[in-house]
Amino acid sequence: VTSLDEAIPLRDAGIQGRILLMTGFWRGEEEEIIRLRLTPTVWEPGQIELLERAAVRLGVGKQPIHLKVDTGMGRLGVTPEELPQVYAALKLSTHLELEGLATHLASSEVLDAPSVGEQLNHFEEVRRVLQNAGFAPPLIHAANTSAVISRPKTLYNMVRPGLALYGYYLP
Q: Edge to edge, what strands does the sheet with 96-103 contain?
């Protein structure tokens, strides 16, 4: 889902499955995210610190999070230059678990767009840096609807077919 506001009705309706918050969260929402057992996407050290403090206050053992990498979309995500501060914050955390690593492809629907290959190269480099820092998130995802349909190299082990769930189709 996009935000906490979309996740709350799902929990209220009795849905107990995993829910990933794709666009992070606002300051002050961190305790509700943990209470509702949601998985937030983060990209700034401050987000990690807020979640860590909330997990400590609520007595949560391990809170899963996903790290979003800005590989060229220019919207939400840690840049390679900011990555050391983010993994330093993760190393200090005792209650958060880096479960996923994600990026968003800027033009996956354009079949001959060279930017997609460049973005995947940047993503793989960030993945290597994280591994060298001692992190190995088990869930890796880059593929949105158009990438699921047209770009097999983006599939990794998790996909996000958002528009496809509404019947959108790319010929």
A: 20-21, 39-42, 63-69, 96-103, 139-143, 158-159
